[in-house]
Amino acid sequence: MAIAKAERLMNLALCLLGTRRALSKRELRGSIEAYLEASGDEAFNRMFERDKDDLRELGLVIETVENLDGEIGYLARRDSNRLPPITLDVEEAAALGLAARVWQQARLAGAASGALQKLRAAGMPEAEDAYEIQPSALEPRIPVHEAAFEPLMLACRDRRPVSFEYRKANAARPEPRQVEPWTLECWRGHWYLAGWDRDRGAERVFRLSRITGKVRSRAGAFTAPVPDAVTVRETVESWAGETATRSARIRLRSGCGYPLRARATETSEGTDGWDELEIPYGHGLDAWLVEFGPDVVVLEPADLKADVVERLRAVAKG
Predict the structure, then answer these.
(1) Bridge partners of 191?
(2) Is 1 a residue whose pLDDT tops 50?
(3) How far is CA 251 from CA 190, 241, 244, 258, 298, in A?
(4) How many whole angstroms separate alpha carbon 203 and alpha carbon 200?
(5) CB-based contacts of 92: which residues, under 8 Å, 6+ apart?
(6) Closest Cα partner for 139 from 82, 175, 98?
(7) What share of the chain is helix, strand, coil (3-state, %, to 5)?
């Protein structure tokens, strides 16, 4: 269905851009196969109006013109829809080249490379930078290992509700979720989805690595408005204790828990195979510590230790 609609929008855009005079609905219907197959005038009118609105939302300037006979026609003038010349300096070109390389191991590799080639063909200067000459010096990557990434990326783009099984950090089994996806964001090597949880009637953030099984698309429109700005990173940071005002002391097995070591404000190396760390303590730290399993022992405070033990017991009970 998505491919058919995209093809129909492309055909309509080409018709409107390729004409020197305004085309009526009747003429457009006779020129586009998908409109000819519409079951009746009412179905065609609804389809045409939606397509016209979608093209305008995508940025195509469509004019409505009335001819001498009073018939309404439509056209998209090329001069009104022509992008301004691309003017990038060498530093900006280098930044774009580096950004495109970030996606070489991800689903957007083809799109990033294609966009870069089009910019170069349009006159973007070739960047002579260290990243091209010595690729091993700095190799930016955004890891995308989760199978849920691609279907969720497409669902965010197309504004399609989804459903999936999700296992919380303190749960032994996954549970079904129905979500209206808003955006994806990578933070500290993990991908997160922000959206509207229909069952809970509230905004939620989901870590993709905890999604089990397939992500399934659902019919229908979003029931909640999409906010202009979605603060995925701020939400995850607060859950992970980034905004903490307290400290916690833990024992960490030597050679383990490098993300915790990076957060530590103080580290004491032990001689028994365990190190002692002081880390920021805030909401969600107990769920994060549980992920390290037997490699972490909480020393203080007592409430954090109790929360971690409770979560571990819940997982052990299954």
Answers:
(1) 186
(2) no
(3) 24, 18, 19, 13, 6
(4) 8
(5) none
(6) 98
(7) 40, 25, 35
